[in-house]
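Data availability excerpt. The first of two example chains:
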Amino acid sequence: MLESWANSQLLSKRWHSTEVGDKIYYVKYHFETNRYCILATDLRRVWSQCAEAAAIYALANQQNLDIENEDQLEVLLVQLWKLIQHLDDCALELSNGDDKHSLLKIRCREQKGIASLTWTFACKSVSCASDVLYDHFISPLLTMILMKEGQVKRVKQRGAQSGHLFLILLRRYTLNLMPSSPPKKKEPTQRCMAKWPGCGLAKDDAHGNRNNSGPKRTGSRERSNGDR
């Protein structure tokens, strides 16, 4: 069973993936100044290792590291945190036990000159794997999908509302362009009528012929009988 403090801290951590042969392992971790916890899964089984100060002192002694006080412990935990961030450089080894008793070892190593640091995170199988997978993998995934679907739905609704508003504005604009009544015939102005009586007016005579009482052309003279 994953410890309660580790479970609550790991819920907000992101998964890191690494490939080992034809399998993909997912690992997340949480480090503090005096403790850490590792959670790993292949989406079928789950492994974890949680260690506090006393256990870390013992693990350091097993790996030939002299950690004697809290300051050295804090420095070690910082180094281990840096090591596991390069998960692809770590070696993952799964023991040959059954699912309930299998052991996943994550061996990390850093070489700096003649000094080196090697640490093995020995993660034991978690009995309630389905609960852990739901809390840390399935539930966040479902939440993300639902949030995404909600965003898409809101975008579609906004698009529909925008389209409806566009049609309303287009209709109003079109109606504003259309005249409300047929255009009236332009009446001749007083100036035009004073200069040219009957300006712009054409009337039919008694025989139905169109009679334009406007000005006649003066380009050619009319000859009278006296001019001949």
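And the second chain:
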Amino acid sequence: MSPARRFFGLDTPPGTLATITGSRLLRSPKTLAIFRLVVAIYVLASGLLAVSLAPTVYFRFLTNLSWMGIAAYFFVASFASFYALKHGPSAQAPKGLVWTVENLFSLSYCLSWVVSLIFWTLLVGVLATSSPMQFYIRVNAHALNFVFMQADLWLNNIPVPLFRVFVFTGTLFLYSGLTYLLKYAFDTPWPYPFFNALDIKDKPAPAVVGILIFTFIFTIVFVLAWAEARLRDSILNRRVAAAAVHAESDTEAAGTQAKETATGAPSIA
């Protein structure tokens, strides 16, 4: 295996049902399954509420697309969790389930970083003129998205290999391409004000520079998210190892005590 393949995580072992449904923090996999299902229902319900208030423009915004992506992730992940509870974590997962969960998770997790950072640094001023319902929907989609994905990150065992940066940036390019298409073909307003600076038709040179800058920023954001996932693995792996050593010590102590009780004399080890 070349160093480049190891660096980008191309040597990551294939995922399994146990990988996408297990937890190093929770004793009961059922807790994770219930958490995922409750979050899925809440995200979908609040998303449908937002759609009902602005049905013609809702899906033009990356925030809303990523919010529905989070709903999709949690529904599929909760299905995987309940499937593992019924058939056992070592069972063969339905075809495509592991791949879908892993990719939905990494994409939703990293998009939660982007959506939250853009809103709270560039767009937070809209809260000052929001109605109570708009305030709820905007804070909901730009804060709880991050909270939910952070919680699932630390509860699950799903890897986030570095090569998925290409899936992440590719998704953002796809969204941008569709935005340009809607603008130039149908004169649809820009979904975000900063797209004015990225208008390739009117300001090609500054737009290209802006796109390169945003691509760099999004790549850095992915690397930060990837680093957090690596930190999670490091911390929780040490926790699991320490718990195993502690359990082994307890087993040895119990065995020694049982031997002393049986012989009526202290055992010298």
